[in-house]
Structure formats: structure tokens, C-alpha cells
Prior knowledge:
Low-confidence stretches: none
Oligomer: single chain
Largest sheet: 5 strands, antiparallel
Mean pLDDT: 95
Strand order of the largest sheet: 2-1-5-4-3
Number of helices: 6
Number of strands: 5
Shape: globular
Strand content: 15-25%
Helix content: 25-40%
Amino acid sequence: MLTHTRAVPTGQERFFDTEEIIVSKTDCTGKILYANDVFLRVSGYDEAELLGAPHSIIRHPDMPRAVFKLLWDTVESGHEIFAYVNNMARSGDYYWVLAHVTPSFDRDGRIVGYHSNRRCPDRSAIAKVAPLYDQLRDIERSFPDRKDGLVASVARLEGILASAGVSYHEWVWSL
């Protein structure tokens, strides 16, 4: 793993083909153990930069932390999750994905890492997701204490889902 200066968002979106799948595997702490060629090309990182790096290396600062809390809580409990995620390439460009993250288990049923397949999302779904994520991010940033912002953002997300009578998983597939 090489170190580098974190990119500054450019506001430019990059795309990948609807037939392509971005694949990565991580250990239990989120350090990248494998990245396929599509991941390398779309993220703009080379393999040496990604292997051993935290998966958050591609986290866009506009993503609400509440979504990642939900994602990690879900996979650490042994379940899969589908989530829309806005990632940031090495250049600072962004790219949306529909991520499917699953835990990997050893023979004794213990989680030994995570596997993520990310597909090109439907644009109509992004049009619905982005305003919610903006709202959650704004809540998080309105608190001087990051933990308080996260708690408020998670509460808002859970409230929205409860009002709709759906889980996050059901909400994602309703888009």
C-alpha cells in the first residue's frame, strides 16, 4: 500500500459500463485484499495503492456516514446488504454504484472478510437516493460533535424508513 494525498472532489462524474462489475474483497477491518481490473480502472488507483488500503479510500465526502453505519452493522451481523454509494476516484471524480456487500465465512461460520460487487446503478434510483443522502449529510454536518451528528442522521434515516413501513433493503429495491 502506498500513501497519497486524499483527492479533492472535482464534481465530475465518471461512468462504467452497465455490463461491468466492480469487485473487491476486504478483511474484517475493511482493508482491501483484492480489486478487479474494473475497480482499478474506474477508481483510478493502481493495485499497489489499493491492496492493504482501507476501503474508505474511495469514500466520497458527500456520502452520509449513516449509510456506512447501516452497511457495517448489517454485514458485521452476518447479513448481506445492497446500498447505493457515491464513491470518489483518485482524481476526485465521483461515480455511483449499487453495492452488494456480503460477509465471507470460514468453516466454523466466523466472518473472515467481506466481498463487494458493485454495478452501474439505474439513474432514476440515483435521482431518488441523492436528495435523501444530501439531507442525512447535512444533518451530520450540523452538529459540532461528529458522533452526535451520526446519531441524529441514523435516527432520521430510521424514521423515514419506519414512516414508509420498509427496511433499508426494501427501500433500495423499491427505487
